[in-house]
């Protein structure tokens, strides 16, 4: 990171940002081009959990190449000013990379969906079999991540 004074090196602070964020941007490689999608997610014990339909571009790309990158952020506040160049945003963000694993068994999906729902609601839910059959869960085993604040 170029501006070391903005780096968040404390793992607990990085995990707090992950737990407070509401959107994860997941990036994959499509041939020689990047492809990124915003997703709901959950974080637990060094892994991100996301849900998806069973088919589509994202799933095809993960099957071809499980190496992914992700970004989450938390806007703290906007700094307003008279001059445009004096405006700014105070934020905290996490960027990381890892391997995406497609989870397809009933138990794996229920566990992943409960982690995702806990991110937003703090509780677990029941999942109809019909819904479980139509979906996949994605687990990203995080290999590296860094935090930044402005």
Mind explaining what this structure looks like?
With 150 residues, this protein is of the alpha+beta class. The chain has one domain: Pnp Oxidase, Chain A, CATH 2.30.110.10. Helices cover 27% and strands 47% of the residues. It is built from 4 helices and 8 strands. The protein has helices at 11-20, 57-64, 106-121, 129-134, and strands spanning 7-8, 24-30, 33-39, 42-44, 47-53, 67-79, 88-103, 135-149. Strands 1, 2, 3, 4, 5, 6, 7 and 8 form an 8-stranded antiparallel beta sheet that branches. The longest helix is centred in the last third of the chain and has 16 residues, at 106-121. The protein is globular and about 55 Å long. The mean pLDDT is 93.
CATH architecture: Roll
Largest beta-sheet characterization: 8 strands, antiparallel
Overall pLDDT confidence: 93
Radius of gyration based on Cα positions: 17 Å
CATH class: Mainly Beta
Can you tell me the number of structural domains? 1
Helix content: 25-40%
Number of helical stretches of at least 4 residues:
4
Overall, the morphology is globular
Low-confidence stretches: none
Strand content: over 45%
What would you call the structural class? Answer: alpha+beta
Order of helices and strands: EHEEEEHEEHHE
Using the coordinates shown, work out and report the CATH topology: Pnp Oxidase, Chain A
Give a nutshell description of this structure.
This protein has 150 residues and is an alpha+beta fold. Helices cover 27% and strands 47% of the residues.
């Amino acid at each position: 990171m170029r501006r070391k004074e903005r780096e968040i090196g404390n793992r607990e602070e990085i995990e707090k940002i992950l737990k407070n964020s509401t959107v994860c941007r997941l990036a994959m490689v499509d041939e020689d081009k990047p492809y990124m999608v915003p997703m709901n997610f959950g974080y637990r014990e060094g892994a991100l959990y996301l849900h998806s339909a069973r088919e589509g571009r994202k799933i095809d790309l993960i099957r071809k190449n499980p190496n992914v990158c992700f970004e989450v952020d938390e806007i703290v506040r906007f700094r307003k000013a008279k001059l445009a160049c004096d405006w700014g945003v105070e934020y905290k963000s996490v960027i990381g990379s890892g391997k995406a694993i497609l989870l397809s068994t009933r138990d794996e999906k229920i566990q992943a969906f409960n982690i995702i729902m806990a991110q937003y609601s703090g509780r677990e839910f029941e999942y109809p079999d019909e819904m479980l059959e139509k979906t996949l869960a994605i687990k990203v085993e995080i290999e590296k991540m860094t935090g930044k604040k402005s």
